[in-house]
Amino acid sequence: MDTLNLIESFADFARQKNIDRPTMIRILEDVFKTMIRKKYETDDNFDIIINADKGDLEIWRFREIVDDNSEDIWDHDKISLTEARKIEPDFEIGEEVAEEVELEHFGRRAVTTARQTLIQKVKDLEKDILFNKYSELVGEIIAGEVYQILSRETLLTDADGNELVLLKSEQIPKDRFRKGDSVRAVVHRVEMQNGNPKIILSRTSPVFLERLFEQEVPEVYDELITIKKIVREPGERAKVSVESYDDRIDPVGACVGMKGSRIHSIVRELQNENIDVINYTENMELYIQRALSPAKLSSMKIDVENKRVSVYLKPDQVSLAIGKGGQNIKLASKLVGMEIDVFRELTDAEEEDVLIDEFNDVLEDWVIEELKKVGLDTAKRVLELGREELVRMTDLEEETIDEIFKIFSQEFE
């Protein structure tokens, strides 16, 4: 391969990869300097002139002329008078010889290696550019097209054909994709695996929901409304606390929109995820009440030191506070940053009931806590609920649940 073809083929390849001209020249120089060092041990006395647009390459070697018997004759930057006069007959000692070195002088194998090295350097540079580009986009929403669906991940491509990965764990459980679908997600993280950038997206991250609010609610984008915190059960339920520093703006109303116009598009994107928008306040009691909405609380006791709060509700409000599968109370706890225990207010008929705390001599503390988490604070309440329902609502093993029913039943015999 001659010089013209080598430079032109590399320049075309680099332009296809969107490599800018200065970077392209730098790569060429680095590769040719490596060739020179392999042959001459140093590149100190060489100049490389490249015109990538025309495909021109010139390599010049500079050496000082010394006497044939000089001790310096073997130095890399010296040349004997006899050798110099073969190049130009009127050279004298002390003058400098500028000699052009043809690419063919390095041998076909070296030139072929140079071409391969050039292409590899561009590919490596392309990977670095891609890694840096997406590292700066972490936390931003992008759209990709589905091109392959695997058991553990879905592969997408961006507008430039780069591969994006949406892991199964980062998909909303109700997500169902087909090849060719356009999918929106947030750039979750970027990793280097075996020298290749891996761009991982997420649709379950709270950041994804936050960016959707920024897109749909101008006041959030303009920072007139601040999103204080987001907690999610992806595809099921989310709680978003918002705050406005402008008294004229209702942050909840602005986020929901007229007749829910703004939030509906977000809900559709998240596969009908139920989104509760809550007005943030530093008044912890009020904040907890809002977080447990739509349930209405009768009273509460806050243990600030242990970050725990006990809330008391009328019987018909307990299930609302807990929510489907315990989602409401779980998300409320995360939102306020405290563990919430739900208790029913006892009616006169329930006065004869026994608090489950009184069974701490026969039941382990963690078992009692698990029952409290789902609003079961008395023995009769547990028995009324039934075994199957208790299995569904808690993480307790069936053997443990059988033991609980046996102990509580004996109490009222």
Description:
This protein has 413 residues and is α/β, with parallel strands linked by helices. Among the domains are: 130 residues, N Utilization Substance Protein A, Chain:P, domain 4, CATH 3.30.1480; 68 residues, Nucleic acid-binding proteins (OB fold (Dihydrolipoamide Acetyltransferase, E2P)). It contains 15 helices and 15 strands. The protein has a 5-stranded mixed beta barrel. Helix 1 runs parallel beside helix 4 and helix 5 runs antiparallel to helix 8. The longest helix is centred in the first third of the chain and has 28 residues. The radius of gyration is 36 Å and the shape is elongated. It starts with a helix and ends with a helix. The model has no long low-confidence stretch (mean pLDDT 87). Pfam families: KH_NusA_1st, KH_NusA_2nd, NusA_N. One of its GO terms (molecular function) is RNA binding. Participates in both transcription termination and antitermination. Monomer. Binds directly to the core enzyme of the DNA-dependent RNA polymerase and to nascent RNA. Its main location: cytoplasm.
In short:
The protein is of the alpha/beta class and 413 residues long. It has helices at 3-16, 21-40, 81-87, 108-135, 206-216, 218-221, 251-256, 261-269, 284-291, 315-322, 327-336, 365-373, 379-385, 387-393, 398-411, and strands spanning 46-51, 56-66, 78-80, 96-100, 141-149, 153-157, 163-167, 182-193, 196-202, 225-233, 237-244, 274-279, 299-303, 308-313, 339-344. Among the domains are: 3-132, N Utilization Substance Protein A, Chain:P, domain 4 (2-Layer Sandwich); 137-204, Nucleic acid-binding proteins (OB fold (Dihydrolipoamide Acetyltransferase, E2P)).
